[in-house]
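I am still getting used to backbone structure tokens and would like to learn alongside you. Would you supply a protein for us yourself, any chain you care to pick? Start from the sequence, derive the backbone structure tokens from it, and show both lines together. Go ahead whenever you are ready, and we will take it from there.
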Amino acid sequence: MAVFTGDDLSSSRFERVDLSGAEFRAVDLSRARFRGVDLTGVVMRGVELVDVRIDGEIQNLVVNGVDVAPLVNAELDRRDPDRARMRPTDPDGFREAWGIIERLWNGTVEQARGLSPGQLHDSVDGEWSFIDTLRHLVFATDAWVRRAILGDPSPWHPLDLPWDEMPDTPGIPRDRDARPSLDEILALRRDRMATVRTVVGGLTDEYLDRRTAPIDGTGWPPPQSFPVRECLLIVLNEEWHHRQFAERDLDALQADATRDS
């Protein structure tokens, strides 16, 4: 166990470091940035949480004795009723949800076409570029639909992009230097979205309640069985949130372009 007492670690970078069970006492974390970090079971007492922004999966978050996660989710659903439709429970609900996803992404892509090709490869605040976001969604479809549900043990395309914190896995591509054009990645994306449309189009209650057959060999998801419902909910969640992130960053890129013109 390492002990740091009175050390100046300001501006340090911790990547793929195991800090589970660590204790922070009288520590200055002002302006720290956490990305892709597992904070499950974290307890914070006597903290000053001011001007903080949290984006992520929030459940059972108790602030001063109040579980704020249901309040946050209710407000987000109020702001955008389509968000609640991303938690379907029956085949018709999944079909409706996927139709919403396709409609919303059409608008996002049109917004992206208003930027220069170079801007679509630009990162905003260290996040994925617009092209990288689309590449990641291709990966999500390949993983949870083509591999988990349809049983293809190696469904990957060279442009697939796993999440940054995923360990390198034999057979799964991770080319962060690839620079496909918007039309190139959209062609691949249309193919994968059509696959999802076919799957949800044929859903029945019985199929939705089935579990997938375990997939042989290494890959993602791991070689085990998953409820079909869970696989499709993961894809809807990925599609919903990454579109919001993409539009946030497209807005920022457009604002930068306006200021520079």
The chain has a mean pLDDT of 94. The chain is about 45% helix and 0% strand. Residues 228-260 form the longest helix (33 residues).
